[in-house]
Amino acid sequence: MKGVSAWFWKNLPYIIVVGLVVVWGVVCILAARLVWSSVASPSTAMLTATPRLPSTPTPSATPSTPLLNVRVEENTLTVVGTNWPANAIVQLWLRHPSISAEYFLGTVTTDEQGRFEWRGTHQSLMPSGEGITLIVLSGAVRQESTFDWRLPTPTPSVTPTPTIAGAFACSIYLASANVRAFPDGASPVLVVLMRGATVQAVGRLADTLWVHIEASDGTRGWVTADALNCPEPLSRLPVLVPPQETPTPTPTATATPTPTPTVIPTDAWRGEYFSNAGLLGVPALVRTDAELRFEWGTQAPAEGVPADNFSVRWMRRLHFAAGTYRFAVRVDDGARLWIDDNLVLDAWELGPSRTLTVDVTLTEGEHTLRLEYFEAAGEAVAILWWSPIPTSFDGWQGRYFAAPLPTGTPVLERDDTVIDFDWGNDAPAPVLPRDGWSARWERTLALPAPGYRFTVDVKGGVRLWVGNTLMLDEWHAADTTYTFDLATDGEPRRFIVEYYDAGGEAAIRVQWVLLSPTPTPTPTSTPTLTPTPTLTPTSSPTATPTASPTQSPTPSATPSPTASLTPSATPSPTPSVTPSPSPAATPPTATPTQTLVLTPVPTATP
């Protein structure tokens, strides 16, 4: 044992060196295997950089995590997805880092393994450059991938066009720019260009407020100078004199019907329907819509317009009285509301059917309303509604909400005289959903004593407060009637009624009646008076028969007494003047008991 110990201490340096070599070899083998696995699957390595994917995926989460593979080849974009829900519709969107709005690419359906592939070429209005974000949606599943899409510098569509010396290329700086037929804000819109679109600036007005441009599709028109981002000063452009009659491009002839709805300010809406989700180009259909109340479902809005990936612009001029109005929009997918060219509501994004509200104070007179709408895929809903916000209430202060709980900002607020409604399968207003909405009524009442019985007929759920006391709590689906009694003393109290539509038919009615005291003394006095007349009729019939038999033998003596006796026999009918009139003299209140007293009398006469 002593020799082994001596050998160990003698060779310890060699043992340490050998151990380090073994450890170093194991580390090199593991590192080589890690490098080989990353090289063997380059697509996975690229996807780990996507912000929405986990940096260190666990083996259990990897198979269920949707993956994206983005490839860019000059003008062509290819998107391949794996591990997505099987047989599902997938929506693809692009977003530029400096633009808040998204550009809708289209939809594709996954196969049974959850795989899809989409390929498309760059269009003139698509975002391009560095930091482009691809957004892919399928139901509640959402993934994003950021990439660079640098287009080739020479663009053949732009090069040949400058017919005027001094023209140069610019890009749209604003989120969107209207290209108009004349340098005037009321001029017809020829096309709408999104931020980043490349145009040719060919001229300007003398004050440089308007610039004449040519879009990549050949459309020429005027834009405001602040809508452009140009590499050279606009003052270098030649000064142009715009035509007074019709602009040079022929599209002006098609745009001339635009002012027609303005002549009839309250009759209808001018609807411009586009076969894309961005209000781009020339409308596929222009028509007059009586009201903005559309629930297309999965159908197309009109012939020539697709059921998905379309957009609409409605315009109308209306007269308003001075006051504050609540505007409500129910929409699926996105919408924007403009009043007098002021953006008052912006929901230009994907989303299910929902109701959005905004309060706007208007001066008396005519105001221009413009609603812009887009539909990506699935259900399509576009409804606009407005009503003045009352400042005082004579009846119930009614507030209506687009949710099952009456909280937040109401969609509709009005003065309801009574709570007595039967909506059936509809809702109180078009902007409210047919099912799943709620309402809240408030009012101060001073009810006199002694009390009232409240009755509530309801189809749905209901709650009722008196002051701070919850008198009725039936917040569930029901088709029934509830009652309760409330003691009152004439003092004012705050009454609150809440209701929600649980689906199906919707109805509620609240009413109350005074509780009157029961009159006890009146009925008891009548029975005591009626028994007294019954004793007189019974004694008079018994006396009459005894008198007439004793007098009948006497007439045989002399004929003269016969004459005296005949009148004495006739008095026997005197009982027919029986006490029957005396019960009739009882007070009118005793009429029911009078019939009961007279019925035994005829039975005693025989």
TrEMBL record:
SUPFAM superfamilies in UniProt: Anthrax protective antigen
Keywords: Membrane, Transmembrane, Transmembrane helix
Superkingdom, natural source: Bacteria
Ranges annotated as biased composition (Low complexity): 525-569, 591-606
Region (Disordered): 519-606
Residue span, PA14 domain: 264-400, 391-526
Pro residues bias spans: 570-590
InterPro entries: PA14/GLEYA (IPR037524), PA14_dom (IPR011658), SH3-like_bac-type (IPR003646)
Transmembrane segments: 12-36
Name of this protein: PA14 domain-containing protein
